[in-house]
Amino acid sequence: MAEDMLRLEGVRKTFGGSEVLHGIDLTVRRGEVVAILGPSGSGKTTLLRCANFLERADAGVLELGGERYDLAQATKREMAAVRRRTAFVFQNYNLFRNRTVLGNVTEGLVVARKMPRAQAEEIARGCLERVGMADRADAYPAELSGGQQQRVAIARAMATDPEIIYFDEPTSALDPELTVEVLGSMRQLAEGGMTMLVVTHEMGFAKNVADRVVFMEDGAVVAAASAHEFFDHPANDRVRIFLRTVGGEG
Ligand SMILES: Nc1ncnc2c1ncn2[C@@H]1O[C@H](COP(=O)(O)OP(=O)(O)OP(=O)(O)O)[C@@H](O)[C@H]1O
Ligand SMILES: [Mg+2]
């Protein structure tokens, strides 16, 4: 547990002349769940996207499982290597509409990893089982609820056996009762030892599942602490005000 799985150092990003990430440092240890909290516009999504090369940072270093990459200078080959070792769960699921549940989960294995289809399907069915979606393997995304679609997206992320999974507000498009099932799948994943970096506004998840919390504001990390410490002994007034706003006190 002592080993760092992910290190981000000095991540900077400017959009249209204004800097939205001012040199972010963040570490996630192997098997750890880190929640990123913070007000809208603080740069949470941009940080995750830069870490996975969905967005090109202006500066910064990514260290993944001991290998270092220059976020601003990485080659296509390096970017592909990083993406093969990581997975991303988006707010809006991003499933292929014209593929079945099983097809969505096997796609990355068969196409990107050249895995034989039979083997990919076996892995996919196992992952769908773990998120309670095995019986819907032949359904199309449009036939599923948002929560079910998000659980399929989580199965798809698990299937590639990533070293870390990034989540960007995975439940924010869902009704409360569907949120509960998705958070349940995420909790199981965490208990299984998956390393996770989760942007969320679910204070219950941050408090009960995350090991550590990183709080961002205006493109900077203004607090980082164990989840217990973050909620029970807020480091500063900005955290206190935020917790009061989102009802996450105590
Ligand atoms: N593609 C873009 N072009 C221009 N500005 C952008 C772009 N993406 C993000 N920004 C700006 O960067 C800042 C950080 O945005 P970001 O989406 O990372 O915030 P966030 O913390 O994820 O917010 P939210 O909680 O609302 O999702 C914001 O001011 C936003 O307007
Ligand atoms: Mg965001």
How is this structure best described in words?
The chain has helices at 44-51, 76-85, 101-112, 117-130, 146-159, 176-191, 203-208, 227-232, 237-246, and strands at 4-15, 18-29, 33-37, 59-64, 67-70, 86-89, 164-168, 196-199, 212-217, 220-226. The protein has nine helices and ten strands. By secondary structure, it is an alpha/beta fold. 38% of the residues lie in helices and 26% in strands. Bound molecules: adenosine-5'-triphosphate (ATP) and magnesium ion. Adenosine-5'-triphosphate binds at residues 15-16, 20, 38, 40-46.
Q: Any idea what the CATH superfamily of the largest domain is called?
A: P-loop containing nucleotide triphosphate hydrolases
The counted number of beta strands is: 10
Indicate the mean pLDDT: 95
Distance between the termini: 28 Å
Low-confidence stretches: none
**Element order, helices and strands?**
EEEHEEHEHHHEHEHEEHH
Large-scale geometry: globular
In terms of topology, how is this protein built?
Layout: E1 4-15, E2 18-29, E3 33-37, H1 44-51, E4 59-64, E5 67-70, H2 76-85, E6 86-89, H3 101-112, H4 117-130, H5 146-159, E7 164-168, H6 176-191, E8 196-199, H7 203-208, E9 212-217, E10 220-226, H8 227-232, H9 237-246
Parallel strand pairs: 3-8, 3-9, 6-7, 7-8
Antiparallel strand pairs: 1-2, 1-4, 4-5, 9-10
Helix pairs in contact: 3-4, 3-5, 4-5, 5-6
The structure holds adenosine-5'-triphosphate and magnesium ion (MG).
